[in-house]
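Dear colleague,

Thank you for sharing your sequence with our group. We've completed the structure prediction you requested, and as agreed, I am returning the results in plain text so they can be pasted directly into your records. Please verify that the sequence below matches your submission; if there's any discrepancy, let me know and we will rerun it promptly.
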Amino acid sequence: MNRGNGVEEASSGGSGGEIPMGDGSQQGPYSSLMSSRGSGRGGGGRTGAQQGGSLRQMGGVGMLQRHATEMGLSEEQLDRLDALRTRHELEKIDLQAALLKAKVLQRAKARDLSTPEPEVMQAIEDLCRAECELRKMRYRHLKAAHGVLNPDQYEKVRRFHRRQTQDRLDAVRAGRES
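Please find the predicted structure tokens below.
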């Protein structure tokens, strides 16, 4: 696995996972297919922070790997993060696929005027459940990544994100003043 470049290889040896973008963000394999509501990514060109915050902005595995030196991570911690990242990517792909399927099925049932209302309502429930599972997964992954850190490193991550948030706010304010 190649650390620090944001690209990871799937366990089968093929290319998969996150793709680094020019602005420092990353694009997942299904990002272009996901709506901004369902995935927290893509859709409308808005970043997670512009959508009101995103767990992705809070120090997950990828962020910790990209800033390993700044956060003072050891080789053992990086190895643990590598193992987490592979498992997390595979789980994320499964849940994103389930969400896409739920969206397709819900749209199909809603368009078909002969579909009984309870079936349409169930499809909506299934869609909501898929979105919920994806959000819960993101939170579990964030907590697992933070579990690799010691208290000092965790505090560095918190300061890092406060600084990033303040920098973004300053940039927005500067743009309004121009």
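Summary note from our side: The beta strands are 8-9, 15-16, 19-20, 26-27.

Kind regards,
the structure core
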